[in-house]
Amino acid sequence: MTQEIKLRKAEINDRDLIWEIIQQAIERRRIDGSTQWQNGYPNLDTVESDIAKNFGYVLTVDGEIAVYVALIFNDEPAYSTIEGAWLSDGEFVVVHRVAVLEKFAGQGLVKKLFDHIEFFTKENGVQSVKVDTNFDNIAMLKILEKQGYSYCGEVFLAGGMRKAFEKIII
């Protein structure tokens, strides 16, 4: 039986479940020994802001929300200063706040999420996808490598240095 997996904009009535997903991800980062997301960010205000600004998206599996992500077009001030160099200087989609509902963890949904993001990017005629992650977020680092993202350097974001990656889509 094939699962139906879709990416859609988050709606305000998704807020509580999205916040639960993020809280689970924060706890997973802590258990994994990561310092990422351990300082009060992201929080419920972040989720509400993402939804209000149309940045929030959810990946659904058979209609059930499984993954949350913020997708932002051409707007990440921290990316204007990089210790290194981006692959391109054209339009881009920024990926932030990837979080998986616990019951879906370990099922390869973040890879499917990135496939959907790349399709979404191409459909919107945007040149590339840019993403950053903490140096100790091993799971995300492995996904970015498998998805063909290039390490571009480091950016200062959310109070610390982050590894920055880019993939040219078109």
TrEMBL record:
Q: Does the keyword Transferase apply?
A: yes
PROSITE patterns membership: GNAT (PS51186)
Judging by the UniProt lineage, the source's domain of life is Bacteria
The alphabetical list of record keywords is: Transferase
Query: What Gene3D superfamilies does UniProt report for this protein, alphabetically?
Result: 3.40.630.30
Residue ranges of domain N-acetyltransferase in the record: 5-166
Q: Name one GO molecular function term.
A: acyltransferase activity, transferring groups other than amino-acyl groups
> Keyword Transferase, does the record have it?
yes
Q: Which InterPro entries match?
A: Acyl_CoA_acyltransferase, GNAT_dom
Q: What protein is this chain from?
A: Acetyltransferase (GNAT) family protein
Protein source organism = Chryseobacterium polytrichastri
Traced from the root, the source organism's taxonomic lineage reads: Bacteria, Pseudomonadati, Bacteroidota, Flavobacteriia, Flavobacteriales
